[in-house]
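Example record used in the benchmark description.
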Amino acid sequence: MPPSVIKTAFWNVVLALAYVLTGLWGLDLAIVNSNVTLIWPPTGFAMAGLLFLGLNASPGILIGAIITNLLNGADPVIATCIGAGNTVGMVVGYGLVRSAYRGIPDLRQVRFTILFVLYGAIAGPLFTSFWGVSTLYLANVIKLDQYLETGFVWWIGDAMGVLLIGPALISLGVLREILVRARGAL
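Model output (structure tokens):
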């Protein structure tokens, strides 16, 4: 097996584990429904994973999201649907960022930071919240009068995860690149 496949598989396992562990912690903070929280750390891991691995990070996000929802007691169909929405929403945000910014993710770059916030933390989470809340509504987990409130909290939670966790992971990636270059210069 080529080293790049092994490396991608390894990082997908790490991403899935990070998603599950931080997702279970995030679900402990749920206030509207057992599926919805004001801080959803996995979206920060998902966005950072996509920015560094590209679409190759999608399997780790999907697997982590499904497992997290299953461990939260969701029906397998609902868990899979919500997991797919979480994955697609983050891919949408990532795709928008990448369509407007081709460089290395670096929060020292104003253009990247603005696009990261607009697309990664606002647009992507809007998609995940719409998909997730629609899934809960169609599965009769929430009522129509809970739709907007649940969707708003879901969106805020996903956005906060991207804004709180994503920058830390992106900064670690940039720091790693700086150290690798410095070591090569010696």
